[in-house]
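Crash report, auto-generated. Payload:
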Amino acid sequence: MESDLMRPIDMLSAYIIAGVGSLLGAMMMLIARQAEPSQRAPLNQCLYGFLILGVGLAHNAFTDTAVRWPILFGAAASLVGTALIARGLGWMVSARPPRFGALPTAVLLAGLVIAAWPLPPRWFGIVFHAIFLMFAASLAYATRHALLRPRSAAERAVGVICALYALTWAQTLWYAIGYRGPELRHLMYMPEPMLTMFAVTYALMPLLVGALVLNLANAQLGARLNRLASTDELTGLLTRRALHERAQLWHAEVRARGQTPALLLVDIDYFKQINDSHGHECGDAVLRAVSGRMRGHLRGDALIARWGGEEFLVLLEASHCRDAAAAAERLRAAVGDAPFSIGALRVPVTASLGLAAWTDDTQFARAVAAADAALYTAKRGGRNRVAIADACEPADALSATAAASRRTP
Ligand SMILES: Nc1nc2c(ncn2[C@@H]2O[C@H](COP(=O)(O)OP(=O)(O)OP(=O)(O)O)[C@@H](O)[C@H]2O)c(=O)[nH]1
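Recovered output after restart:
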C-alpha cells in the first residue's frame, strides 16, 4: 500500500545498503589504483566519486527525512560523486580525459537541486530524480565505447552496468511522477519492495563497477606485461620467446596461403670490435640502428626477433625459396652498404646471413639449426654474405642467387 511507503526504517536500510555499496566500491578503486599506476588519474576520480557518493548516502540514512539541509547535502554529494565517477570511467575506457567538466556541471546541478527545494516535496523529488537520471545517462554515455566497441568482457560489463544504473534512475523517476501518497520531503517515492530492489541495485552498482574496473586494470596490466615480455628492450624487436610462441601459427598461415616459409639468421660481423673500439654504448646504438634498418627493408608481415646478443632471426614469407634468397641479399646490402651514423661517428657494419626453408615436415628447432649451419658457412666463407642451407630448393637456382650476393668485406 502506498500509505506504507517511506517508513523511516525502510529509508534507513535503503540508504545504508546503498551507502555501504558505494564505500565498498571506493575500496575496490583503492585496490585497483595500487594495481595499475598508469590508470591512477581516472581511478582517482572514480575513487573520490564513490567515496563522496557513499558518504552522502550513509549520511542520508541517519538523517530525519523531513529536515532540509542534511537531505540537500546528501543530494548534492550524490550528484558530485556520480559526476566524478562518470568522468573517471569515461576517461578509463576511452583512454583520454572526457571533454565535459564534471565538477562545474555537478555544482551547477546541485545548485538547481537547492533551488528546487521550495517546490512541493514531490516536485522536489521529481526534479532531483530527473537531474540524477541525466547524470546516470551521462555515466552510460561516458562509457559508451565500452558498450559499442569493448576491448574485453570486463569493459563490456562496465558499459552494461552503467546503462543499468541509468535505468534504475529512470525507474525511480517514473515512481516519483506516479506517486500519490502523503507528501514527505525525501528522495524516494516508490513501494517498499521496489525501494529495497533499488537500494540493492544501487549498492551493487559501485561494487560491481569497482570489481570490473579492477579486472580491466588487471587485464591492461597483463597486456602491458605481455608486451614487455615479447619486446626486446634495446631494439624494440620481438624477443626470442615471443618469436618461439608465434612461429608455429605463422608457419601454418604461410603454408595455408601456399607460400614458402623461410628462416633467416642475421649475425653482425666483428661486433666485438665495435664494442672494443667505440664502447658498449656505441655497440648498443649500432644494434638499434641495424634493427631499424632491417625493419625498414623487410615486408611488414616478416617477424623479426633479437635472437641473441648481435644475432637476429627473421621469419620470411616468400613465393619461392629464390625470392627468400633475394630478400636475404637485399637485407645484407641494406646493413652493409652504408655505414651507420652514431653521434659524430660513422661506423661501417656488415652482417652474415644464413637462410633455410622451413618445410612442413621440419621442426622449428631443426629449421633454425639449418639456418645456423648456413650462417656458420657464411662466416667461414669470409662474412658479409648470404649462405643458403641445403633444405632450400631448388639448390641450383639458390646457389646462383647466393653466389651473386657474395662479397668480401
Ligand atoms: N653493446 C652490446 N654488445 C653486446 C650485446 N650483446 C652481446 N654483445 C657483445 O657482442 C659481442 C659478440 O662477439 P662475438 O661472439 O665474438 O662475435 P663477433 O665479434 O661479432 O664476431 P663474429 O660474429 O665471428 O663476426 C660480444 O663482445 C658481446 O659482449 C649488447 O646487448 N650490447
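Post-recovery validation: Strands lie at 260-268, 303-306, 311-318, 340-342, 345-347, 351-357, 386-388.
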